[in-house]
Design a protein that fits this description.
Blueprint lengths: L2 H8 L3 E11 L2 E3 L5 H8 L5 E8 L9 E6 L6 E3 L9 H6 L7 H17 L4 E7 L1 H12 L3 E8 L10 H17 L2 E4 L4 H7 L9 E4 L21 E5 L8 H11 L7 E5 L3 H14 L5 E5 L4 H9 L3 E4 L15 H8 L3 E5 L3 H8 L3 E4 L3 H13 L1 H15 L4 H14 L2
Parallel strand pairs: 1-3, 1-6, 6-7, 7-8, 8-9, 10-11, 10-13, 11-12, 13-14, 14-15
Antiparallel strand pairs: 1-2, 3-4, 4-5
Helix pairs in contact: 4-5, 5-6, 8-9, 8-13, 11-14
Length: 415
């Protein structure tokens, strides 16, 4: 659908978008990377856009942030939840740890209902990350506060939680939302087959639309080979163990034995997030070879750092029940857009796609396998250039605008 047609489709619409972020020192961290892209796509096109951003457990703050935008105006009006919802604040503070917390789920459900009852708008679309938010939106559709409910899924695993009863509740909520939302937006094509494997009746499911994570156009640009930093690696992303940042550091230790000038750039996370990795760096004596950039707020600045590197690392850990088996892999998309060669573990579905397209090498999730692949790329100029060329081809149409425009186009077709 052309831009003009998308504009015509959305120009009189109102959208409520419910998501989550980790907030540190008053800044929104990229726990969920779709907030700004969704805002940037919809604010110029719709009559009204409302964001409910629910502070992720472990944030400096515990109450939702509400931002109300009118068309073509990025200067939003900020609102707080009602005083009734603030009665939960002592409990939220007590359980504010970076894991799934039931009291935060109660807050999430009530925050959606609370805002809808305060806002006079009957929203054309309510797009929700997390099943608990979608459950609230389904209720709001029942009382005619919402017309179309979109269940937007960025993470999914049939075995997400070690507790059997907790995981059962998670699967039941996901299944209910998959059956009662109007549409499902999955960031990965692996999600719906996984739902079906644990009991979802595909004939009763809402219509599924693949909405991959995207990039901004200024991120899809490579540096000339002459400007690439020789023998350089980059790890971009959050620093949880499941994402394997320690694998990247330990791989560097092995690579240095053959390439003494090798270096690793670490992009993402806070000083606190990096603390456990700093111990590995110090133990291995890698301080001079590891460059820690932390969280880079502007996507263009982050891409500029990545474009200078030779190899991008996606060392997702092979952990039973990991979300990474079914989710999108944003770091692979960013690496490809920057025109750098990629080494991915066997875990993420996007790593399979990139390898099939000749844009990545796919290896086991251990330091030696990553180091061997990196040294192979460093040693073989033809391999490096081939991976680089295929990565740029893989990424060239991967914009947020294409993802979201495609999703609204599909919803319009499937009415």
């Amino acid at each position: 659908m052309a831009k003009k047609e998308i504009g015509e489709l959305l120009e009189d619409k109102t959208v409520l978008f419910v998501s989550f972020s980790k907030w540190i020192n008053g800044s929104r961290m990229p726990t969920n990377g779709s907030i700004e892209p969704m805002r940037d796509f919809l604010v110029p096109r719709v009559k009204k856009f409302v964001l409910i951003d629910q502070a992720h457990p472990g944030s400096d703050e515990v109450m939702p942030k509400i931002e109300v935008y009118s068309r073509n105006n990025k200067n939003f009006k900020s609102y707080k939840s009602s005083k009734i919802l603030y009665l939960l604040k002592p409990l939220l503070n007590k359980f504010n740890k970076s894991t799934t917390q039931p009291i935060f789920k109660i807050r999430d459900f009530l925050s959606v209902i609370d805002w809808s009852l305060r806002d006079k708008t009957s929203f054309d679309y309510c797009i929700c990350l997390e099943s608990i938010n979608t459950l609230a939106a389904i209720f709001l559709r029942k009382i005619r506060r919402v017309k179309v409910v979109v269940y937007y899924v960025s993470d999914y695993s049939p075995n997400r939680y070690p507790s059997k009863w907790f995981n059962t509740v998670y699967l039941l909520l996901d299944r209910f939302c998959a059956m009662h939302a109007d549409y499902i937006w999955d960031v990965s094509k692996a999600m719906q087959p996984a739902r079906i494997s644990v009991g979802l009746n595909s004939n009763k499911s809402a219509s599924v639309i693949h909405v991959p994570n995207g990039l901004y156009p200024d991120q899809i640009k490579a540096n000339p080979v002459s400007k690439i930093e020789n023998h350089s690696m980059v790890y971009m992303g959050t620093l949880g163990r499941e994402n394997g940042p320690d694998v990247a550091i330990l791989a560097l230790d092995l690579v240095l034995k053959k390439f003494p000038d090798a270096k690793l750039h670490m992009i993402g996370g806070t000083e606190q997030d990096f603390e456990w990795l700093r111990k590995i760096v110090q133990k291995k004596g890698l301080k001079e070879s590891v460059y820690v950039h932390g969280f880079v707020e502007k996507s263009s600045d982050m891409s500029d750092l990545i474009k200078n590197c030779t190899v991008g690392l996606a060392p997702y850990r092979d952990i039973p029940g990991s979300l990474r088996y079914y989710a999108d892999a944003g770091k692979i998309r960013v690496y490809a857009a920057a025109g750098i060669s990629i080494v991915s573990s066997q875990v993420p579905p996007l790593g399979i796609d990139a390898a099939d397209r000749g844009a990545a090498l796919r290896v086991h999730d251990d330091p030696k396998s990553f180091a061997d692949a990196v040294m192979n790329i460093f040693s073989d100029k033809k391999l490096y250039l081939r991976l680089r060329k295929n990565a740029m081809e893989f990424a060239k149409h991967n914009t947020w605008e294409n993802s979201f425009a495609g999703a609204f186009r599909q919803m319009n077709k499937r009415k």
